[in-house]
Amino acid sequence: MYIKYLIILLVVTTAISCGSGNQGADADKGTEQKTGEATVHDPMKNKGIGPIKNIVIANEIDREMAAKGEEIYNLKCKACHKPTEKFIGPAPKGVLDRRTPEWVMNMILNPEIMIKEDPDAKALLIEYNMAPMANQGITEEEARAMLEYFRTL
Ligand code: HEC
To answer: Is 119's C-beta closer than 6 angstroms to any atom of ligand 1?
Structure first.
């Protein structure tokens, strides 16, 4: 009997300490050091956390690549993202006016870490009532093609 209560107590305490740890100041500190920001946070300077460090985007939209991106998007993203209006997640239309291309690709490729450690992804998660962005097993090439599609919206 007594031991049962002890086990329950232990489980509850562990759950509470894990929960608060994720949103704690430590994660913030890490990102701030990485991006070298002191007080003001600018999402347009944030490249996010993940495999994409630097990408170059041509002025002209690559229509062939965008068409491929649209196909993948329709298959794997549309359940939660309508192209031009807010749904379960934000609309990708105009996303590059508020995010860097690297951030967008890292969000697609590495959402679990992003929503835990990146300040902008964390804010977005709260804004969307803690509905997490899903990892759809996308390759870098597919993510890049979807980025090109977002430019056409
Ligand atoms: C199960 C639902 C779901 C699926 C499927 C999903 N997402 Fe998301 N996505 C979200 C939610 C919810 C958010 C916002 C909250 C968050 O980040 O946790 C989000 C955020 C994003 C963002 C950040 C947008 C912004 O305005 O900053 C991008 C980019 C994104 N998703 C792209 C995609 C792509 C591309 C796919 C398909 C490969 C996809 N998502 C599949 C739910 C989903």
So the answer is: no
**108, amino acid identity:** I
Ligand 1 centroid from CA 78, angstroms = 10
Amino acid 77 reads C
How far, in Å, CA of 111 to CA of 88, rounded?
15
Residue 55 CA to ligand 1 centre (angstroms): 20
Q: What would the pLDDT profile of 31-67 be if each residue is shown by its tens digit? A: 555 555 566 889 999 999 999 999 999 999 999 999 9
Contact (Cβ atoms closer than 8 angstroms) between residue 52 and residue 109: yes
Max intra-chain CA distance, the chain: 71
Per the structure block, which two tokens stand in for 85?
A: 């209006």
Picking from 118, 152, 147, the residue whose alpha carbon sits closest to that of residue 56 is: 147
